[in-house]
Amino acid sequence: VIEKRLKLLNPRRTTVDLSLDVFRAISDWYHFAILELTLVTGFQLTAGSAASRLGISKPEADVAIDRLLRLELLEKDKKGHIKKTKNYVMAQSQVPNQALKSYHKQLLERSIEALIHQTPQERVSSSDIVPIDSQYVEDVRRLSDQFTSEIFKISEKSKRKDHVYCLGVHFFKLTPERK
Q1: What pTM, to 2 d.p., does this model score?
Q2: What digits encode the pLDDT tens for the residues 96-116?
Q3: Cβ-proximal residues to 103 (8 Å cutoff; 6+ apart), any chain
Q4: Closest to 30 in 3D by CA, of 110, 128, 147
Q5: Alpha-carbon distance 85 to 38, whole Å?
């Protein structure tokens, strides 16, 4: 669904839906952040610059960049600058998947850190608790996809990109089934 919306948003942009096997290899959060760093205005991707900007170790960044190059999600241009090859990279599964769970857990942990260390002007944090008939969860998913498409539009029109952000929309039961 979101892949179709991305293609409608910009038909010339490439989208790749990773197989879960490929995703497993790059499921640490910083792989996707490294991909997006290539779009930050004036940023030259190296292991050192990625490590410094993301707060990870240089060896982690080096291994991640090598892996992304091997998977052809990054490439070096004629000048040796590393660029992202696909505009939108995503992984999805309709069944529970440990790599996806780990990825989302890592991003939720980063979200907690942002809540503690970033000012309200630097981040957007919002939570609402609502009662709903569970038959409408797919409607919520559709609205979330539409919202995400709108955020991609803002990213597309943004000429000067100075940071990489994480958009997280979480809608889950606070009242699990009773047995």
Answers
A1: 0.81
A2: 889 999 999 999 999 999 999
A3: 23, 27, 28, 29, 91
A4: 110
A5: 10
| DSSP, residue by residue, 41-60 | TT----HHHHHHHHT--HHH
Q: State how far the alpha carbon of 72 is from the alpha carbons of 48, 66, 103, 117, 156, in Å.
A: 21, 10, 20, 34, 22
Instruction: Note the residue count of the chain.
Output: 179
**Spatial separation of the C-alpha atoms in residues 48 and 55, rounded to whole Å:** 10
- Residue 167, token pair as written in the block: 């958009």
- The token pair at 131 is 């009662």
> Residue 137 and residue 119: Cα distance in Å, rounded?
32
pLDDT in tens, 26-53: 999 999 999 999 999 999 999 999 999 9
The Cα angle at residue 152 between residues 72 and 123, in degrees rounded to 5: 105
Q: Nearest to residue 84, comparing CAs of 151, 124, 26?
A: 26
Distances (CA, A) of 46 to 2, 52, 130: 31, 10, 44
Alpha-carbon distances of 11 from 71, 83, 179, rounded to whole Å:
23, 20, 48
What's the one-letter identity of residue 134?
S
Q: How far apart are CA 77 and CA 171, in angstroms?
A: 41
Q: Are strands 74-76 and 82-84 parallel, antiparallel or unpaired?
A: antiparallel
